[in-house]
Amino acid sequence: MGHWQAAAARSKFTEVIDAAVEGEPQFVQRRDGKEVVIVSRGYFERTKPNMKTYLLNEFCFGDGEEVFDAIMQNVRADFPDVLAARDSIE
């Protein structure tokens, strides 16, 4: 993984982006200690949380994905109009 001070990252921006695109996250830090991570679009899309991941992590479904999936099947069966309304908006 690349670690850069902000000034160096600015002057080597192409290298920072190229490394991120190649799959190597790039850490850029300012003098005040604030830091960002630059990753490729593909990495971001693969790792960004979806609603299921968020709910599993934030609300501690202790029994894991199986219980969550069963609950969602019940919701779909009991409230088909809610999902139909969402689909008509898109």
Report, as a whole number of angstroms, the end-to-end distance.
39 Å
Structural class: alpha+beta
Please name the fourth-level CATH homologous superfamily of the largest domain. Answer: YefM-like domain
Tally of separate domains: 2
The parts where pLDDT drops under 50 for at least 5 residues are none
- Biggest beta sheet attributes: 3 strands, mixed
Say how many strands there are. Answer: 3
So how many helices?
A: 6
Q: Helical proportion?
A: 55-70%
Q: From N to C, what is the helix and strand string?
A: EHHEEHHHH
At the first level of CATH, the class of the largest domain is Alpha Beta
Question: What is the 3D shape?
Answer: elongated
Tell me, rounded to a whole number, the average pLDDT.
83
What's the architecture of the largest domain, going by CATH?
3-Layer(aba) Sandwich
Rg for CA atoms: 20 Å
Main sheet: which strands, in order across? Answer: 1-2-3
Looking at the structure, the CATH topology of the largest domain is YefM-like fold
Strand content: 5-15%
How does this model look, in words?
- This protein is of the alpha+beta class.
- The protein contains six helices and three strands, in the order E-H-H-E-E-H-H-H-H.
- It has helices at residues 6-11, 13-21, 41-47, 51-58, 65-78, 80-89, and strands at 2-5, 26-29, 35-38.
- A three-stranded mixed sheet has the order 1-2-3.
- A hairpin with a 5-residue loop joins strand 2 (26-29) and strand 3.
- It starts with a strand and ends with a helix.
